[in-house]
Amino acid sequence: MRASIQDSHFLLRRFHSALGLIPLGAFLVFHLWENSQSRFGPEHYNAQVERIQQLNYLLIIELVVIALPLLLHAGYGLVIIGSGSAEPLRYRYARNWLYWLQRLSGIAIVAFLALHLGLTRFAGLLDPQIDTNLFRYMQQSLTQPVTFALYLLGLWLSVFHLANGLATAAISWGLTTSAAAQRRFGWFCLGFGLLLGALGTHGLIGFLK
Predict the structure, then answer these.
(1) Where is it mainly found (predicted)?
(2) Given this model, what pLDDT does residue 85 score?
């Protein structure tokens, strides 16, 4: 019985990891690239958003590829947090700190997503004019220092969560078995995270022109 529970937990952790990397991680990369189009000005950005909104079966894609994986990933993430035992003040080595920060960033990202969806998707349902000139709307929102700071924080926490999750997934999936391989791939993930964070930051700044 105990072996069966452990096997289920093992499979759920692998499923949780896969959801975070494949649909959600890929979407984060795409979304930050999409927002980086802001540097080309409002006409280019709004045209890019309109092309995406005109995709066939967009609502189904959003539900199946984004919303459902996000709910499953976040929900099981809370289970992991509840059963975790990270003690960063007692065990002050890097891997334990990263374990703790991964969980903390996940909670913060959920709060940030609620803010982001409220300011964009739900606001667009109440005022359809927002979707016709999303660049202008985001520009007005991000000129508020508090909103810009929250977006910048949410962006970098999301990037950290993905990059650190990629590094830990490589260990748990048995792709980096030696300490040297884990160190090398860790540096790769750090570089990937910095590049992705820079792309996202550039996109936020593009709205302020």
Answers:
(1) membrane
(2) 54
